[in-house]
Amino acid sequence: MEHWINELLINLDSSVDEKTKQDIMEKCGPKCPFSHLPNDELIKLRNESETEKDFLEKLSVRWRLKQEDNEYYVVFDKCYCPLMQNALENASKSMCYCTLGSLKHKFEISLGRKVEVEMLKTVLAGDQECRFKIKV
Question: Which CATH architecture has domain 2-135?
Fold first, then answer.
């Protein structure tokens, strides 16, 4: 399956522009079956929180959300996508747009509003970490 996904992404990379790739892959993110943070856990944590800030602080303790200089980031120390882990060297960074879409979805359902997420770094692009800025 991983080989097929990688071939699909390679063909996507060579066939469409960056914006189109991002739109396609970002729309896949909310349906990711490999999420490490289930939606129901997020909603439960939100319901247990007094305020949005309280929720973000609790999420920072339980997950990979980091607050730096009044900005929030989701940071992964490696690529955790099971579809990419066996072929990181040849993997398409377009798959990272799926993660972007997943994160956007998770913050929107837990905060109950639109949230922007910016992909800053990814392991598949050759960076030491994956870093997504969450604009709350």
Answer: 2-Layer Sandwich (3.30)
